[in-house]
Amino acid sequence: MKMTGAQAIVTSLEKEGVELIFGYPGGQVLPLYDALYDCKLRHVLTRHEQGAAHAADGYARATGKVGVCFATSGPGATNLITGIATAYMDSVPMVCITGQVPLSVIGKDSFQEADITGITAPITKHNYLVKNAKDLPRVIKEAFYIARTGRPGPVVIDVPKCLMTTTIDFEYPETVRLRGYKPQAEGKAAEVEAVAQALAEAKKPLFFVGGGVINAEAAPLLRRIVKTHRIPLIGSLMGLGAIPVTDPLFLGMVGMHGTVAANRAVMECDLLVGIGVRFDDRVTGLLTRFAANARVAHFDIDRAEVNKNVVADLAVVGDLRWSLAALESAMADLAGEGGRRWEDWRLQVTRWSEEAPLSYQKSDDVIKPQSVIEEIDRQTKSEAVIVTDVGQHQMWAAQYYRFQRPRSFITSGGLGTMGYGLPAAIGAQMGQPNKSVVLISGDGSFLMNCQELATAVEHRLPLKMAILNNNVLGMVRQWQKLFFNQRYSYTRFANGGTDYVRLAEAFGATGLRAERPEEMPEVIAKALATEGPVVMDIRVCADENVLPMVPAGAPLDQMINGEVK
Amino acid sequence: MRHTIAVLVENRPGVLVHIAGLIARRAFNIESITAGYTEEADVTRITIVVEGDNRNLEQVVNQLSKLVDVIKIVELTAEPSIERELALIKVKARPETRSDIVDIVEIFRAKIVDVNRETMVIELTGEETKIDALCEVLADHGIVEMVRTGKVALSRKPGAAKDSE
Predict the structure, then answer these.
(1) A563 pLDDT band (50/70/90 cuts)?
(2) Quick one: B16 and B52 in the same domain?
(3) Which domain, by its residues, includes B99?
(4) Burial class of residue A242 in the structure, from the number of CB atoms within 10 Å of its CB (0-12 exposed, 13-18 middle, 19+ buried)
(5) Which residues of B touch A117 (CB under 8 A)?
């Protein structure tokens, strides 16, 4: 069939089953937007390209599908960068299509020209500068395949404007031929046997669950193994929700703001089984002391993660749906025991959980930020999709919300992108229109992309946004307090702060405020009962630290406010 | 330790930059990098010499393997292989020193490829150490300028890198 390059892009996206595109038009993508005008694809106009990238990311995390965003050349494309880097660090499948100046003027420093494939090389799984219009269908087919298979990640396709208006014979390829890209679904059975053997020999085994379990849709398998063998688990930030955090075997998040029990278990276990994790420095603390008494087994789909940070004694490279199923079979001999061989260890670690639960000083005078999370958890019955920004509120959300399901916690883990929350929540809500989506943000983060309130209002999204407003950049202030002699350099918004109720109203959303502890539950209840987007300005106390805390570079047993000897 | 790795890649614009960029970003040190066509027109072979311990090497190889345009990677340090480098050396050559330089060139089985009143250009192919040695001797006469290709290497095994496991 004859069609223009722009129509070929749109038709290819339809063939890939795309339902939703987030984007922002501009000069060099005009022909593409023209093709969108009369097709079935739904396009959401964000108010900033960064918002489009984060929204596509939030949509992808909430649904497991590939997120798609459009931007124009030059500044449009560079505005996507933070969003692409965020998705890359957290292995989120995305396809970003950017307009580029026509081939004849590439390299001439043309108006709105930027070398976007050069700029995004380090933060994409793969990228393309398309030079021939007839390549467009193949490139889009490959891009989606690369984005969602293996370890997922973002792919950028840069399309010069002249290609969009060139007429081609459209034919969508059935298959992908990429000789340099063969994601390894199945690993080696012998490697899994070795892990099962190590588990049989271990006295104190510990599972460490990461975002890979959620990406691979392998949480049901993991839950089955845990139910049978009753091996204690810890989770990374990205792994929250893979196992219900209320499961007594789940000791909580590990690392810098992890629980005492989780960090203590790492220091004392004799076999640590990392599943879909990358042993980030916020998890390990001082690397040489991390799991120092343990053998380490590492399950991951990305071979490059093995031995990158923590040296693995045993490694299984493959899709977790394959490797966890194989592990389950390999452990069949032990299934009859119901985990009795590890009973002492299990009793020990669950006792640590009981002895040192997460806690904070309650107050009747000021709203404690932790209490806001607990109240949201209570009122949403632990069933909401929680999206966060980055900072103290993010860690409190991770600590105090009781996640039950995969894809119920959407947060920028690796890159730690402030401003991620609101647009990601928009994407998550659009991907899961029937779920309750709650954004937990801070006043610092919220202001970084607050223009997306306009997008939320335009689409009448039932999004609830809780700003834990302390009028300071809380996490930075916490570090200044603990490590910089309380020299609070530029972390207070000195103008007395922004009126978020009026801000919400200016955008056409509902704004509510809670200033006293007794008002807070009512405000949350009212927000949840109100239709459309609601911003809650919750005035929390400023002088609160996220605890426990392992200082950067310290071993996990040196916790501030964690009774671990 | 220095490692020589052969990387077979799709012959597309920007691939060399991508590979060099990745190695640099991951804070590995490139000693030399060379690229050229192979027996297959759409495949480029890049020979990279990197400095690092075995764990560093494992990371370099694993990270490069993730690039979609990388078809195959072989570590040639790990197997018997032929390693060669080409150098062109412009050396000061006055009439009274020329015969001495010619002797040196013969001993090293190098070639004189250009002569003028003041200088000579010498071509030498060989292992890195041999080129180093020639340079050291010629230094007494004064090296005006020099260019080296960086190492290329080929396994002695009967098969091709593209077919290896």
Answers:
(1) low
(2) yes
(3) 82-148
(4) buried
(5) 14
A394 is a catalytic site residue: no
d(CA A274, CA A233): 10
Residue A564 has pLDDT above 60, yes or no: no
User: Which of B25, B62, B68 is opposite residue A126, by nearest beta carbon?
Assistant: B68
Rg of chain A over all Cα atoms, to the nearest angstrom: 24
Burial zone of A193 (CB within 10 Å; 0-12 exposed, 13-18 middle, 19+ buried): middle
Cα–Cα dist A133/A100, whole Å: 13
- The pLDDT score that the predictor gives to residue A224 is 97
A492-509, pLDDT tens digit by residue? 987 777 999 999 999 999
**Is residue A440 pLDDT above 90, yes or no?**
yes
B-chain residues within 8 Å CB-CB of A125? 66, 68
| CB spacing of B66 vs A122 below 8 angstroms | no
Q: How far apart, in whole angstroms, are the C-alpha atoms of residue B94 and residue B27?
A: 45
Active-site annotation holder among A50, A89, A94, A161: A161
Residue A177 has pLDDT above 60, yes or no: yes
- Is B34 among the domain residues? yes
The DSSP element (H or E) to which A140 belongs, if any, is helix A136-148
* CATH number reported for the structural domain that contains residue B88 in this entry: 3.30.70.1150
Residue A250 bears catalytic tag: no
Is residue A111 part of the annotated active site? The answer reads yes
* A54 residue type, one letter: H
Interfacial residues of B (vs A; Cβ cutoff 8 Å): 9-10, 13-14, 17-18, 21-22, 25, 55, 58-59, 62-63, 65-71
Instruction: Summarize the confidence of residues A467-483 as an average pLDDT.
Output: 96
> Cα(A420)–Cα(A417) distance, rounded to whole angstroms?
6
A183 chain-B contacts, CB cut-off 8 A: none
| Whether the predicted pLDDT of B134 surpasses 90 | yes
pLDDT of residue B56: 86
Cβ neighbours of A307 in B, within 8 Å? 55, 58-59
> Is B160 part of any domain?
no
Instruction: With beta carbons under 8 A apart, name residues in chain A contacting B64.
Output: none
- Find the CB nearest B71 among A126, A180, A306: A180
Whether B10 sits inside 8 A of A180 (CB atoms) is: yes
- Mean pLDDT in residue range A472-485: 96
Residue B161 belongs to some domain of the structure: no
CA distance B29 to chain A (A): 17
Mark which residues 95-134 of A lie under 8 Å from B by CB: 117-118, 121-122, 125-126, 129
Q: How many domains does chain B have?
A: 2
User: Is A112 among the residues known to form the active site?
Assistant: yes
Q: What are A106-147's pLDDT values in tens digits? A: 999 999 999 999 999 999 999 999 999 999 999 999 999 999
- B134 and B70 in one domain? no
CATH number of the domain residue B25 falls in = 3.30.70.260
Task: Please calculate the CA angle A119-A123-A126 and round it to the nearest 5 degrees.
Answer: 90
Residue B78: pLDDT band (50, 70, 90) is confident
* C-alpha pair distances (Å), A519 with each of A289, A364, A434, A453, A513: 46, 11, 28, 24, 8
Do residues B15 and B66 both lie within one domain? yes
Within a domain: residue B163?
no
